[in-house]
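Regression test case RT-17, inverse folding.

Input:
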Protein backbone atom coordinates (compact mmCIF):
# COMPACT_ATOMS: atom_id res chain seq x y z
CA UNK A 1 0.00 0.00 0.00
CA UNK A 2 1.24 3.50 -0.70
CA UNK A 3 2.26 5.33 2.47
CA UNK A 4 -0.56 7.88 2.02
CA UNK A 5 -3.24 5.20 2.10
CA UNK A 6 -1.58 2.95 4.66
CA UNK A 7 -4.10 1.70 7.24
CA UNK A 8 -3.52 2.16 10.91
CA UNK A 9 -1.52 -0.74 12.37
CA UNK A 10 -1.55 -1.11 16.15
CA UNK A 11 0.78 -3.72 17.64
CA UNK A 12 0.18 -5.52 20.90
CA UNK A 13 2.34 -7.82 22.97
CA UNK A 14 0.58 -11.07 22.17
CA UNK A 15 -2.68 -12.59 20.92
CA UNK A 16 -4.41 -12.07 24.26
CA UNK A 17 -3.56 -8.36 24.36
CA UNK A 18 -4.58 -7.97 20.72
CA UNK A 19 -7.94 -9.63 21.32
CA UNK A 20 -8.44 -7.57 24.46
CA UNK A 21 -8.06 -4.41 22.39
CA UNK A 22 -10.47 -5.83 19.82
CA UNK A 23 -13.00 -6.47 22.62
CA UNK A 24 -12.58 -2.91 23.86
CA UNK A 25 -13.23 -1.55 20.36
CA UNK A 26 -16.17 -3.94 19.83
CA UNK A 27 -17.79 -2.61 23.02
CA UNK A 28 -17.12 1.03 22.15
CA UNK A 29 -18.49 0.75 18.60
CA UNK A 30 -21.49 -1.18 19.92
CA UNK A 31 -22.25 1.46 22.55
CA UNK A 32 -22.11 4.21 19.94
CA UNK A 33 -24.34 2.34 17.47
CA UNK A 34 -26.95 1.38 20.08
CA UNK A 35 -26.98 4.96 21.38
CA UNK A 36 -27.39 6.30 17.83
CA UNK A 37 -29.99 3.90 16.43
CA UNK A 38 -30.81 1.20 18.95
CA UNK A 39 -29.02 -1.62 17.13
CA UNK A 40 -25.42 -2.74 16.49
CA UNK A 41 -24.86 -4.79 13.34
CA UNK A 42 -21.61 -6.71 13.28
CA UNK A 43 -20.11 -9.24 10.87
CA UNK A 44 -17.97 -11.83 12.62
CA UNK A 45 -14.73 -13.18 11.19
CA UNK A 46 -14.00 -16.84 10.65
CA UNK A 47 -10.95 -18.94 11.37
CA UNK A 48 -9.41 -19.52 14.79
CA UNK A 49 -8.09 -16.12 15.92
CA UNK A 50 -11.54 -14.74 16.81
CA UNK A 51 -12.02 -17.52 19.39
CA UNK A 52 -9.99 -15.57 21.94
CA UNK A 53 -11.90 -12.37 21.15
CA UNK A 54 -15.22 -14.15 21.59
CA UNK A 55 -14.16 -15.69 24.88
CA UNK A 56 -12.92 -12.28 26.11
CA UNK A 57 -16.30 -10.73 25.27
CA UNK A 58 -18.07 -13.32 27.43
CA UNK A 59 -15.96 -12.31 30.46
CA UNK A 60 -16.02 -9.23 32.72
CA UNK A 61 -16.29 -6.34 32.08
CA UNK A 62 -17.73 -6.92 28.60
CA UNK A 63 -20.31 -9.59 29.46
CA UNK A 64 -22.24 -7.19 31.66
CA UNK A 65 -21.31 -3.95 29.89
CA UNK A 66 -22.40 -4.73 26.33
CA UNK A 67 -26.06 -4.40 25.24
CA UNK A 68 -26.15 -7.94 23.79
CA UNK A 69 -29.91 -7.82 23.21
CA UNK A 70 -29.42 -4.99 20.70
CA UNK A 71 -26.86 -6.76 18.51
CA UNK A 72 -27.52 -8.42 15.14
CA UNK A 73 -24.80 -10.95 14.31
CA UNK A 74 -23.78 -11.75 10.74
CA UNK A 75 -20.79 -13.54 9.21
CA UNK A 76 -18.34 -12.11 6.68
CA UNK A 77 -17.73 -15.52 5.18
CA UNK A 78 -18.44 -19.20 5.67
CA UNK A 79 -17.19 -22.57 4.60
CA UNK A 80 -19.48 -24.83 2.56
CA UNK A 81 -20.18 -27.19 5.43
CA UNK A 82 -23.17 -27.85 7.71
CA UNK A 83 -23.58 -25.51 10.69
CA UNK A 84 -22.47 -28.22 13.13
CA UNK A 85 -19.32 -29.12 11.16
CA UNK A 86 -16.00 -28.60 12.94
CA UNK A 87 -14.90 -26.20 10.15
CA UNK A 88 -18.03 -24.03 10.38
CA UNK A 89 -17.43 -20.40 11.30
CA UNK A 90 -20.99 -20.33 12.60
CA UNK A 91 -20.32 -23.29 14.92
CA UNK A 92 -17.16 -21.64 16.29
CA UNK A 93 -19.06 -18.42 17.06
CA UNK A 94 -22.04 -20.29 18.50
CA UNK A 95 -19.79 -22.26 20.86
CA UNK A 96 -17.53 -19.39 21.95
CA UNK A 97 -19.87 -16.38 21.93
CA UNK A 98 -23.54 -16.80 21.04
CA UNK A 99 -24.50 -19.77 23.21
CA UNK A 100 -22.53 -18.61 26.30
CA UNK A 101 -24.34 -15.23 26.05
CA UNK A 102 -27.73 -16.71 25.27
CA UNK A 103 -28.16 -14.62 22.12
CA UNK A 104 -31.71 -14.90 20.75
CA UNK A 105 -31.97 -16.86 17.50
CA UNK A 106 -33.71 -13.96 15.71
CA UNK A 107 -30.54 -11.92 16.25
CA UNK A 108 -28.31 -14.58 14.65
CA UNK A 109 -28.07 -14.37 10.86
CA UNK A 110 -26.16 -17.47 9.80
CA UNK A 111 -24.59 -17.42 6.34
CA UNK A 112 -26.18 -20.42 4.53
CA UNK A 113 -23.04 -21.72 2.80
CA UNK A 114 -24.22 -25.31 3.28
CA UNK A 115 -26.96 -24.80 0.67
CA UNK A 116 -26.93 -26.88 -2.49
CA UNK A 117 -27.40 -23.82 -4.72
CA UNK A 118 -24.71 -21.46 -3.37
CA UNK A 119 -25.57 -18.58 -5.66
CA UNK A 120 -29.25 -18.65 -4.68
CA UNK A 121 -28.22 -18.89 -1.02
CA UNK A 122 -25.88 -15.89 -1.38
CA UNK A 123 -28.74 -13.87 -2.87
CA UNK A 124 -30.99 -15.00 -0.01
CA UNK A 125 -28.39 -13.78 2.48
CA UNK A 126 -28.29 -10.44 0.69
CA UNK A 127 -32.07 -10.24 1.14
CA UNK A 128 -31.73 -11.11 4.83
CA UNK A 129 -29.14 -8.38 5.27
CA UNK A 130 -31.29 -5.88 3.39
CA UNK A 131 -34.33 -6.74 5.49
CA UNK A 132 -32.39 -6.52 8.74
CA UNK A 133 -31.10 -3.09 7.76
CA UNK A 134 -34.60 -2.03 6.69
CA UNK A 135 -33.33 -0.94 3.28
CA UNK A 136 -35.94 0.24 0.78
CA UNK A 137 -34.02 1.79 -2.11
CA UNK A 138 -32.82 -0.96 -4.48
CA UNK A 139 -29.04 -1.15 -4.50
CA UNK A 140 -28.70 0.90 -1.30
CA UNK A 141 -25.58 -0.55 0.32
CA UNK A 142 -25.91 -1.72 3.93
CA UNK A 143 -23.47 -0.02 6.31
CA UNK A 144 -22.29 -2.46 8.96
CA UNK A 145 -21.23 -0.80 12.18
CA UNK A 146 -18.31 -3.23 12.43
CA UNK A 147 -16.85 -5.87 10.14
CA UNK A 148 -14.27 -8.09 11.79
CA UNK A 149 -11.71 -9.65 9.46
CA UNK A 150 -8.85 -12.09 9.74
CA UNK A 151 -5.98 -12.54 7.29
CA UNK A 152 -4.50 -15.77 6.04
CA UNK A 153 -0.77 -16.29 5.53
CA UNK A 154 -1.51 -15.94 1.80
CA UNK A 155 -3.00 -12.48 2.33
CA UNK A 156 -6.65 -13.55 1.90
CA UNK A 157 -9.39 -12.06 4.01
CA UNK A 158 -12.94 -13.26 4.57
CA UNK A 159 -13.10 -15.76 1.69
CA UNK A 160 -11.57 -13.35 -0.79
CA UNK A 161 -8.69 -15.59 -1.82
CA UNK A 162 -5.89 -14.72 -4.25
CA UNK A 163 -6.83 -14.93 -7.93
CA UNK A 164 -10.49 -15.87 -7.29
CA UNK A 165 -13.54 -14.41 -9.08
CA UNK A 166 -14.99 -12.67 -6.00
CA UNK A 167 -12.10 -10.18 -6.06
CA UNK A 168 -13.60 -8.57 -9.16
CA UNK A 169 -17.19 -8.32 -7.86
CA UNK A 170 -18.30 -4.71 -7.67
CA UNK A 171 -22.11 -5.02 -7.49
CA UNK A 172 -23.13 -7.98 -5.33
CA UNK A 173 -22.75 -7.86 -1.55
CA UNK A 174 -22.38 -11.60 -0.97
CA UNK A 175 -21.21 -14.22 -3.45
CA UNK A 176 -20.23 -17.83 -3.78
CA UNK A 177 -16.53 -17.99 -4.53
CA UNK A 178 -14.74 -21.02 -5.98
CA UNK A 179 -11.32 -21.43 -4.32
CA UNK A 180 -9.22 -23.85 -6.39
CA UNK A 181 -6.36 -23.70 -3.87
CA UNK A 182 -8.73 -25.21 -1.31
CA UNK A 183 -10.43 -27.45 -3.86
CA UNK A 184 -13.73 -26.08 -2.56
CA UNK A 185 -16.06 -23.11 -2.69
CA UNK A 186 -16.82 -20.53 -0.02
CA UNK A 187 -19.45 -17.82 0.55
CA UNK A 188 -18.11 -14.34 1.25
CA UNK A 189 -18.82 -10.65 1.65
CA UNK A 190 -17.47 -8.67 -1.30
CA UNK A 191 -15.35 -5.53 -1.28
CA UNK A 192 -18.30 -3.17 -1.91
CA UNK A 193 -20.04 -4.41 1.24
CA UNK A 194 -16.88 -4.49 3.37
CA UNK A 195 -15.78 -1.04 2.19
CA UNK A 196 -19.12 0.53 3.14
CA UNK A 197 -18.70 -0.38 6.82
CA UNK A 198 -18.22 2.27 9.49
CA UNK A 199 -15.41 0.24 11.10
CA UNK A 200 -13.28 -2.55 9.62
CA UNK A 201 -11.06 -4.28 12.13
CA UNK A 202 -8.42 -6.83 11.09
CA UNK A 203 -7.17 -9.20 13.75
CA UNK A 204 -3.81 -10.64 12.65
CA UNK A 205 -1.76 -12.77 15.03
CA UNK A 206 1.10 -15.24 14.77
CA UNK A 207 4.52 -15.42 13.11
CA UNK A 208 3.08 -17.27 10.11
CA UNK A 209 1.30 -14.06 9.07
CA UNK A 210 4.38 -11.80 9.28
CA UNK A 211 5.52 -11.95 5.65
CA UNK A 212 2.00 -11.51 4.25
CA UNK A 213 1.29 -8.66 6.66
CA UNK A 214 4.47 -6.86 5.61
CA UNK A 215 3.55 -7.31 1.93
CA UNK A 216 -0.05 -6.18 2.49
CA UNK A 217 0.86 -3.09 4.49
CA UNK A 218 4.19 -2.02 3.07
CA UNK A 219 4.48 -3.78 -0.28
CA UNK A 220 3.53 -2.57 -3.74
CA UNK A 221 -0.15 -2.72 -4.66
CA UNK A 222 -0.94 -6.28 -5.74
CA UNK A 223 -4.43 -7.10 -4.45
CA UNK A 224 -4.91 -10.05 -6.80
CA UNK A 225 -2.10 -11.77 -4.93
CA UNK A 226 -2.87 -10.07 -1.59
CA UNK A 227 -6.66 -9.56 -1.30
CA UNK A 228 -6.42 -7.98 2.18
CA UNK A 229 -4.62 -5.09 0.51
CA UNK A 230 -7.76 -4.06 -1.40
CA UNK A 231 -9.92 -3.52 1.70
CA UNK A 232 -10.38 0.28 1.66
CA UNK A 233 -13.39 1.64 3.54
CA UNK A 234 -15.03 4.50 1.62
CA UNK A 235 -15.34 6.68 4.71
CA UNK A 236 -15.06 4.23 7.58
CA UNK A 237 -12.19 3.38 9.88
CA UNK A 238 -9.67 0.66 8.92
CA UNK A 239 -7.42 -0.68 11.65
CA UNK A 240 -5.11 -3.70 11.79
CA UNK A 241 -4.73 -5.03 15.32
CA UNK A 242 -1.65 -7.23 15.28
CA UNK A 243 0.49 -9.09 17.78
CA UNK A 244 4.27 -8.83 18.00
CA UNK A 245 4.86 -12.07 16.10
CA UNK A 246 2.77 -10.99 13.13
CA UNK A 247 4.35 -7.53 13.18
CA UNK A 248 7.97 -8.69 13.40
CA UNK A 249 8.81 -7.86 9.74
CA UNK A 250 7.09 -4.45 9.69
CA UNK A 251 9.02 -1.23 9.50
CA UNK A 252 8.73 0.40 12.95
CA UNK A 253 7.57 3.57 11.17
CA UNK A 254 4.47 1.65 10.06
CA UNK A 255 3.39 0.96 13.58
CA UNK A 256 1.19 3.30 15.51
CA UNK A 257 1.53 3.50 19.26
CA UNK A 258 -1.03 1.19 20.83
CA UNK A 259 -4.20 3.35 21.18
C1 LIG B 1 -12.11 -18.28 7.26
C2 LIG B 1 -11.86 -16.83 7.36
C3 LIG B 1 -10.51 -16.41 7.01
C4 LIG B 1 -9.71 -16.27 8.29
C5 LIG B 1 -8.23 -16.25 7.99
C6 LIG B 1 -7.42 -16.23 9.28
O1 LIG B 1 -13.26 -18.68 7.10
O2 LIG B 1 -11.10 -19.01 7.38
O3 LIG B 1 -12.76 -16.01 7.52
O4 LIG B 1 -10.44 -15.23 6.28
O5 LIG B 1 -10.09 -15.07 8.95
O6 LIG B 1 -7.94 -17.42 7.26
O7 LIG B 1 -7.71 -17.41 9.99
P1 LIG B 1 -7.00 -17.74 11.40
O8 LIG B 1 -7.56 -16.76 12.37
O9 LIG B 1 -7.42 -19.15 11.70
O10 LIG B 1 -5.54 -17.57 11.20
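Golden output:
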Amino acid sequence: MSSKSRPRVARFEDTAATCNEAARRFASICDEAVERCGVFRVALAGGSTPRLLHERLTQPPYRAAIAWEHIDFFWGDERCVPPDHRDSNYRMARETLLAPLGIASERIHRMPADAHDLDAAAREYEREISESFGLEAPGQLPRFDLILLGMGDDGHTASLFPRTPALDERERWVVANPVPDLDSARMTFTYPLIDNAAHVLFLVCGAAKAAALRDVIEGPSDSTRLPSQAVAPVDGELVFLVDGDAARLLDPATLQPAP
